[in-house]
Write a structure and sequence with these properties.
- The protein has eight helices and ten strands.
- By secondary structure, the protein is of the alpha+beta class.
């Protein structure tokens, strides 16, 4: 009964995700950032990545890798859910924490009332099952779906920035949700290297 196992995992809404994302929602409004891995960041997961990150209470950060599509689709994950079969885009690897959960990033101007949290200008994150389902059913054309997320402990991202592992840029919804991510890291890297060399 693998279907029941998936439903159970999904319904759990893992405690670590709820903890970090509740902390993100409660955090003082600080600027989100788009992190672009530098060439020297040689890591099997985070090398060549672009990560949308946001501070949480206590000095930590949460984020989602936006340029790592998987070979899995929503219809494979939820074969009995008809709206999932209509989503052509693959699921993306959001990070290595809570990879049994599906998260949705959705573009929205204004505010939302479905429990989603604002993670960047015009971008909201849904992590509760009902909100994700509703986005799959009615807003999938301007959303991206992720398995897992990135979590930095307090001070951890600051240390990575001090070590020169990331470029920091402004997040833009159109870029974060770009359908084709092939070459996106290289494009941003060249732009940010050129900017760094002119400062």
């Amino acid at each position: 009964m693998p279907g029941l196992k998936l439903v159970a995992l999904r319904a759990l809404a893992a405690s670590s995700a709820i903890f970090f994302l509740t902390a993100a929602a409660a955090a003082a409004p600080e600027e989100p950032m788009l992190l672009v891995a530098k060439r020297q960041f040689e890591d099997p997961i985070y090398g060549s990545t672009i990560v949308l990150a946001r501070p949480v209470q206590g000095g930590g950060h949460v984020g989602f890798i936006v340029n790592k599509p998987t070979k899995m689709s929503l219809s494979e994950l939820f074969p009995g859910h008809e709206p999932s079969k209509k989503v052509a885009d693959p699921l993306f690897l959001g990070g290595t924490v809570d990879m049994n959960l599906v998260f949705a990033l959705v573009e929205e101007h204004g505010s939302r009332k479905d429990g989603s949290i604002r993670i960047a200008p015009d971008l909201f994150l849904a992590f509760e099952t009902q909100a994700v389902d509703r986005i799959i059913e009615s807003e999938s054309d301007h959303a991206r779906f992720f398995l897992g997320m990135v979590v930095w402990r307090p001070g951890q991202l600051d240390d990575e920035l001090d070590r020169g592992l990331w470029y920091v840029d402004e997040p833009e919804a159109k870029l974060v949700l770009r359908r084709k991510t092939d070459g996106l890291w290289e494009e941003l890297l060249l732009r940010l290297e050129a900017r760094a060399n002119t400062i």
